[in-house]
Amino acid sequence: MSTSPQRTAPRGRPADPSVEARALNAAVELYSEVGWNGFTMDAVASRAKVGKAALYRRWPTKQELLTNAIAGSKAPDVSLRDTGDLRTDLETMAEGLIGALHTPRGLAELRLQLEAKIYPEILDQAMDPIRSAWTASARTYVAAAVSRGQLPDTASPTLIFDAIRGAIINRFLLTPSHRSTSMLEGRHELAQRVVGLALASFG
Amino acid sequence: MSTSPQRTAPRGRPADPSVEARALNAAVELYSEVGWNGFTMDAVASRAKVGKAALYRRWPTKQELLTNAIAGSKAPDVSLRDTGDLRTDLETMAEGLIGALHTPRGLAELRLQLEAKIYPEILDQAMDPIRSAWTASARTYVAAAVSRGQLPDTASPTLIFDAIRGAIINRFLLTPSHRSTSMLEGRHELAQRVVGLALASFG
Asked: Membrane-spanning regions, if any (chains A, B) (predicted)?
């Protein structure tokens, strides 16, 4: 952390470490609400209560700001634990995903995945770490279960993960807002049912 | 096709039936690209090459325009056929959904589902027919399969449909844009694998 005078900020004031955190939070929140079309440096600055200059110093473009904001908070749905029991771990992951979708971070990630379809040249770069983390988790995880004899070696990591994450996303998208609380409250049971279905073909 | 003088004499000009179709198409396209935050009457009018007055005459608010535009084109992913064979019909539905997601209409519907989470008071109304159609299809369809003895009567229509539609949406969202063509080309096989997994627990 430098205490030397800064170029464009008010002279002599020490750097405020909370500026970065506030800006990244505001960026995630704003993007989850309005998407790329409304994602401007002005709007982030105003929501975060930071100066625009402070934003541009750290992130010269809004792509960089968004990419950092999304990457900064670890994707909850791919942070798998390995307890040695496949079903338990997948249920924990599924339950975490249901919770995550009800946060700005989860919504922002889903929105980014959708909007990368529309603005690939701008947003595919921000999506790449998310895609890679997801694919790597699925592979590592299923490989471990195969090595423990809990899955046959023909099991497709992506198909199993697509079915779990997909079923939860679909249920989330089709649940009216006034039933969000009851979806959250029932997340343990939903996670069990979804994982049960995804693993059913393996006996 | 009218041959009467146009442009400067709006009064008395016969209604142009193509105005409505152009406006609805433009609304779906625009919404799929920019979302609610950029969805304005101005932008729809300009894309559809129709006057703003013509839009407001038909749809007094942008909610009404969007709801009509989305409802106007039938959701491809819920138009099930009933050939008597459950697996074949679900595969046809799944394949249709993969195709639909690669169109503005499919993207617009997915975006609407996401944005209804953020602006429920504005967009839940537009989502209601989509939710109802989806739930009704799942129930009718699974009930028919149960009555033919193709599924046990404990089978959950929503879980089966969530797994199929969800897995496809998840695969779509995680596929980089430069691989869209190959996802489309492989849609028959993907549909088979996803339906196979969703039905695996029923033997």
From this structure: none
- Whether chain A has a CB inside 8 Å of the CB on B174: the answer is yes
**For residue B1, is it within any domain?**
no
In chain A, which ranges are continuous DSSP H helix?
A: 17-34, 41-48, 52-58, 62-72, 86-101, 104-115, 120-147, 157-174, 180-185, 187-199
Which residues form the domain of A25? Answer: 17-72
Task: Answer whether residue B11 is part of any domain.
Answer: no
pLDDT of res. A170? 96
Report ipTM for this prediction. Answer: 0.88
Residue recorded with tokens 């922002």: A108
Assess whether A174 and A138 both reside in one domain. Answer: yes
Taking 70 as the pLDDT cut, the residues of chain B under it are: 1-15, 73-80, 203
What confidence tens digit (pLDDT) does each residue in A156-203 have?
Answer: 999 999 999 999 999 999 999 899 999 999 999 999 999 999 998 786
Are the C-beta atoms of residues B26 and B4 closer than 8 Å to each other?
no
Task: With respect to residue A12, please indicate whether it lies within any of the assigned structural domains.
Answer: no
| Cα B25–Cα B30–Cα B31 angle in degrees, nearest 5 | 100
Q: What do you get for the CA distance between the two ends of chain A, in Å? A: 56
Q: Do A174 and B131 touch (CB under 8 A)?
A: yes
Q: Give percent above pLDDT 70 in chain B.
A: 88
Interface test with A, best of B109, B134, B173 (most A CBs within 10 A): B173
| CA dist., res. A49 & res. A26, Å (int) | 9
- What are the two backbone dihedrals, phi and then psi, of residue A11, each rounded to the nearest 5 degrees? -55, 135
Write down the pLDDT at residue A40: 97
Return all residues near A7 (Cβ < 8 A) that are at least 6 apart. Answer: none
* pLDDT, averaged across chain A: 88
Closest CA to A158 of A201, A124, A198, A190: A198
Residue numbers in A near B196 (CB within 8 A): 201
Q: What is the count of structural domains for chain B?
A: 2
Nearest by CB: A113 against B113, B134, B174:
B174
Residue A84 sits at φ, ψ, to 5 deg, of 95, -15
| Residue-level pLDDT at A164 | 95
The reply to whether B155 falls in a domain is yes
Out of A34, A117, A177, the one facing B124 most closely (by C-beta) is A177
